[in-house]
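Long-time lurker. I teach an intro course on protein structure, and each term I like to show students one example going from raw sequence to a predicted 3D structure in C-alpha cell notation. This year I'd like something fresh instead of my usual example. Would anyone be willing to generate the C-alpha cells for the chain below so I can use it in lecture? Attribution to the forum is fine with me.
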Amino acid sequence: MTAPVVSIAYHSGYGHTAVLAEAVRTGAAEAGAEVHLIKVDEITEEDWGTLDRSDAIVFGSPTYMGTASGAFHGFAEATSSRWAGQDWQDKLAAGFTNSGSKSGDKLHTLQFFQILAAQHGMHWVNLGLLPGWNSSTASENDLNRLGIFAGAGAQTNTDQGPEGVHKADIATAEHLGRRVTRTALTFARGRAAA
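-- Reply from a regular --
Happy to contribute to a lecture. Here you go:
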C-alpha cells in the first residue's frame, strides 16, 4: 500500500504555529505518510496541486481575536473553486491552533476548520485523546493538557517566541499527525476492500 499524502495547510504569524506544523509533520512522517508543509499566505499553483492530490489536509492557524488569522481566512475563501466541484470530497481533515491564553477561544478556530472541511465534504479527524492535566496527580506535561477534543490546541505565553511553545503541546501535535496518518491508512484499506 502506498504512503498516504498528508498536507499541512497553515499560517503562522509569529512562528508559534509553525512549530506546531512541524510537529504535525513529524508525527505524520513517523506513521508513514508523505508529508507536505504549505504556508497558505505564500501558496503557489504547485501547492494547490499538492492539496488536490492529498489524502488528508490538516489546517493550522493561530487564534487571533477568537478565530483563525486573516491570512487563513483568505486561503479558506480561495478554496471555493474546489468547493464548487467538491474536489476535496472524502479527503480527511484535521486542525490545530495556538493562542496566548489557556482558552483563547481556540475552540472557535477549530470549529471554523471543521465547518470548512464539512463544506468540502471532508471527514474530520478529532484528536482522540482524553484530557490531560485535570486531576491532582496530572501534570502540565500531559498530552492534551488543555483538554481539547476537536483538534490539537496549544498555549504560548505572549512574551515568548517560538521557543516558548510548550513541549506537551508539541507532543500533542505530533500525536495528531500520527492519528491522521493512521486514519488515512485505514480509509485506504477500506476503499481497497470495497
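Some talking points for your students: Helices lie at 16-30, 45-53, 70-78, 80-85, 106-119, 167-193. Residues 132 and 138 are 7 Å apart (CA to CA).
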